[in-house]
Write a structure and sequence with these properties.
Layout lengths: L32 H4 L2 H18 L7 H7 L4 H12 L3 H7 L2 H11 L6 H5 L7 H5 E5 L6 H4 L3 E7 L6 E5 L4 E6 L3 H11 L4 E4 L3 H6 L13 E5 L3 H10 L8 E2 H7 L6 H9 L12 E2 L12 H17 L1
Parallel strand pairs: 1-6, 2-5, 7-8
Antiparallel strand pairs: 2-3, 3-4
Helix pairs in contact: 2-15, 3-4, 5-15, 13-14
Amino acid sequence: MNNCHLFPIKHEISQDSGFSLGETPLILPYQKEKTMTTQDQINFDRIAQAIGFIQSNFKLQPQLEEVAEKVHMSPFHFQRMFTEWAGVSPKKFLQYISVQYAKQVLKDQQATLFDAAFYTGLSGTGRLHDLFVQIEGMTPGEYKHGGQDLQINYSYFESPFGPLLVASTAKGICYIAFADDLEVAYAALAHHFPRARFTQMADLLQQNAMKIFTDDWESLSKVKLHLKGTEFQLKVWEALLKVPKGGLSTYGTIAASIQQPSASRAVGTAIGSNPVAYLIPCHRVIQSTGVIGGYMWGTPRKSAIIGWEAAQVNAI
């Protein structure tokens, strides 16, 4: 599950297929059966369903057999599938997404997360996003008139958490979103850049960025993000890069880190508008109570990512 693969989706889009402001974005044809039936995707859908079921019934503490039945699997096969994906048993994984665990992580990191001495001492694994991801804001000229001068390549990749739509300009990655429905994901991209020109192509910028899901980062070059955002949004997104893999933060902590401690609500809005899933780790921001909270692509997926990262870090 750690390897990323380009989906075998084949269609072409004209270089001149920009969208006018106010138009409904063109939905391109695609071979859905070749993407949605991959075993990795089926497995993750079952895992997300199981996590959602457990969180909805956490007071009842459902047993393995009950959870497995919910996703139409035998307990043995569910345990094996889950362990292959997460690297730990379902029981251990649930500890990593519990409120108690989250509170402990927040307590441990509260005084040290943005302390330079502490942060410099983190391993390359913990500092993956900070070391390898660099944000550059789009200039007004680059985004004038809804991005009419932007040429954007896009493609679909698998990840451990479901399919991704990844898009890039000549300068860097400009958009990543989970793409459970490819038509909806493409329409959202087109809405984000309503007058850009789109070409379906997996370029080197995208392929390099997707190496972040693998265990071999020696071949990973600096990932440049080329983002449309206000100065405040860019500051918030840059602060998110400093939350290490396996770590967690809160809206208040992020606000304090950018010297605006009273701006928690605005920080939450900026985090909610993050245009680059996973690479900008907005999933690591939770409520101060330890509750995981909402996520643009669903709370079960957010829980899955948090637990998966914690299992990887704790296995080192």
